[in-house]
């Protein structure tokens, strides 16, 4: 039997319940799931890289097969280095498709042995994004059900 290692890459600024839903689904499907946080020098994130990693480790600690790591440079190079054969990405709605298609095909061009697998998060998360979560937090709106409680606390203390 093949051991399947998948990478779930992203910015995770911050991790939402939608990300967690996908991690839970990926964890059931792959032998090992590496949640890889992009060290992006161009974007100015709300949470530092180490804060994002800390929150992810906290909310995924119940899954033994899930690891949280950091990467920079090309995702295909990181996947090669980690011996992963799959990139896992979530598609919430048709609007995600174009961007995801472009990335998946470019990654395939760069590394044909790497397969992108798309999964659908639970439908109750189909409208959820880290960007909207940050906006709601900035404007003092309720975050219950959108992010794990530990992330909600971090958001509140960061923003107030
Ligand atoms: O959560 P995001 O911000 O949509 O994730 C985007 C991410 C991290 C998957 C993408 O920006 C990425 O893979 N960046 C690494 C650089 C890279 O490999 N670029 C070419 C992608 S085709």
Highlighted features:
5-stranded parallel sheet; single chain; globular
What does this structure look like?
With 160 residues, the protein is an alpha/beta fold. The chain is 43% helix and 18% strand. It contains six helices and five strands; from the N terminus they run E-H-E-H-E-H-E-H-E-H-H. The chain has a five-stranded parallel sheet, with helices on both faces. Strand 4 (86-90), helix 4 (94-110) and strand 5 (115-119) form a beta-alpha-beta unit. The chain is globular, with a radius of gyration of 15 Å. 4'-phosphopantetheine binds next to strand 1 and helix 4.
Q: What does this entry show, briefly?
A:
The chain has helices at residues 17-29, 49-59, 75-82, 94-110, 130-138, 149-159, and strands spanning 5-10, 32-38, 66-71, 86-90, 115-119. With 160 residues, it is of the alpha/beta class.
Q: Would you tell me the overall average pLDDT? A: 95
What does the main sheet amount to? Answer: 5 strands, parallel
Uncertain stretches: none
Range of strand content:
15-25%
Give the strand tally.
5
The outline comes out as globular
